[in-house]
Amino acid sequence: MQSRLYLRLLTSVVAGALLFGGNAALAQEDPPAPPPVDNPPPAEGPLEGRPETAGAQALAIQTPPPLPTAEADLPLGKIKVPEGFKVEVFASGIDNARSVRVADGGTVIVSNWQANKVWAIPEGGDPRPIYEGLDWPNGIALVDGDLYIAEHQRISRAADIEANLENPPELETIYTDLGEPRPHGWRFLAAGPDGKLYVSNSSPCNICAVEPGFGEIRSINTDGSGAETILRGMRNTVGFDFSPVSGELYFTDNQRDWLSEDLPQDELNRVTEPGQQHFGFPFCHNGTFTDPEFGWGYKCSDFTDPIALLGPHSAPLGMRFYTGDMFPEQYQGAIFIARHGPWNRTVKIGADIVVAHLDESGNVESIEPFLTGFIENNEYIGRPVDVEVMNDGSLLVTDDWNGAVYRVSYGM
Questions:
Q1: Gap between the Cα atoms of 279 and 41, Å rounded
Q2: What is the distance in angstroms between the CA of the first residue and the CA of the last residue of the chain?
Q3: How do 85-91 and 172-175 pair as beta strands?
Q4: At a CB cut-off of 8 Å and minimum separation 6, what does 241 contact?
Q5: pLDDT digit string (tens) for 207-217?
Q6: b/e string for 60-83 if b means 16 or more Cβ within 10 A?
Q7: pTM to 2 decimals?
Q8: Which helix (H) or strand (E) holds 250?
Q9: Which of 43, 67, 194, 271 is 20 to 30 Å from 218 at the Cα level?
Q10: Angstrom distance (rounded) from CA 128 to CA 138
């Protein structure tokens, strides 16, 4: 009953909004080219376009504490999970903890976006930085024991990282064809089932006519060659993963700001035709309405619908399919999604982990809360960023507000 009420609240912020768009509608041809406009991507950051009204002016970027929260002060006792699950602190003191990956030998790698470091947590050991002085190293991936780091304008490789934690190898740059504008310039990186790397090149603006090459996810070979565009029309993704059943790419997408408190909703999307789909930005939002500025001359049927809506400005970031065997059967193959929570919405939502259950066709069947408790009196006391399945089947959750990593286990 609680799950149904939560889903209803999550997806009914505006009358007529749909939870999921059904099967993706693929246009037979590319949508028409937008008319020429004199609108270069703005570089002023997230306040660009904020209305000159008292309510909007009261909203500002949410700044985390200046230092990581001491382990004894982490809000562990306020975190709620379903019956049978347990949350514990896996690591603390990792400033701006963002993306997380687990190596074959059990070493946990954690990136920083703003702190410009990459950390390693050896199995049974303490966290320590292995690379420092980088440039927004948000994206990390592991392929055949090698660590790949996506900074603002390059992707680099550290060979055989687990065997070299005491003396990390010099980073080898493999790819540099990434956009320069800083807005949304933190990359997400993942290894695909085809052995290739997948990297985001998000739209460098709140809302704008996107120049070619932006609003994409690309695949590249692990030596940096063979770049291909996998999708277009994405605004800003900071999380994607591949179905263990179909191999299809699913990704979260953060939608535009300053349209309203309740519109648009952020999205979960599914790529069924790599290289052929356009997901609507900046012309159509949520598969239901065209943008008041850039939507003229377009219709939403020109683009691929999202498969689920995740709440207005909820900021869904990292997501993973659950591939472990520790959690109960209903979680097998489900998607765990970290919602960072809005900074530009009066009433905060999110700051949680939700779980999307899929049907046999890979469509979203239901969404329910999994890990909550990081909003108190309409203020953040934690903000989840990414999730990762450990080798034993437990789930790691990063929290950049507190500089911590939590471990969620079941029945242990």
A1: 19
A2: 27
A3: unpaired
A4: 190, 249, 250, 319, 320, 321, 335
A5: 999 999 999 99
A6: eebebeeebbeeeebbeeebebbe
A7: 0.90
A8: strand 249-253
A9: 43
A10: 17
Residues pairing with 155 in the sheet: 150, 175
Residue-level pLDDT at 86: 98
What are the residue ranges in the chain where pLDDT is below 50?
A: 1-29, 33-43
Q: Are 396 and 108 in contact (CB under 8 A)?
A: yes
Contact 35, 294 (CB under 8 A): no
Closest CA to 237 of 176, 192, 195, 190: 190
Q: Which DSSP state fits 74?
A: S
Domains, in order of start, for the chain = 2-31+90-410 (2.120.10.30)
Q: Where are the beta strands (DSSP E) in 297-383?
A: 308-312, 316-321, 335-339, 352-358, 364-371, 375-376, 379-380
The Cα 11–Cα 194 span in angstroms is: 34
Closest by CA position to 108, among listed 409, 401, 392, 411 = 392
Are the C-beta atoms of 316 and 367 separated by less than 8 Å?
A: no
Which residue in the block uniquely carries the two structure tokens 């909550």?
Answer: 372
Contact 209, 282 (CB under 8 A): yes
DSSP 258-309: SS-SS-SEEEEEEESSTTT-B--TTTEETTTEE-TTT-TT--GGGSPPPSEE
> What is the arrangement of strands in the sheet containing 155-158, beginning at the earlier edge strand?
139-143, 146-150, 155-158, 172-175
pLDDT in tens, 298-326: 999 999 999 999 999 999 999 999 999 99
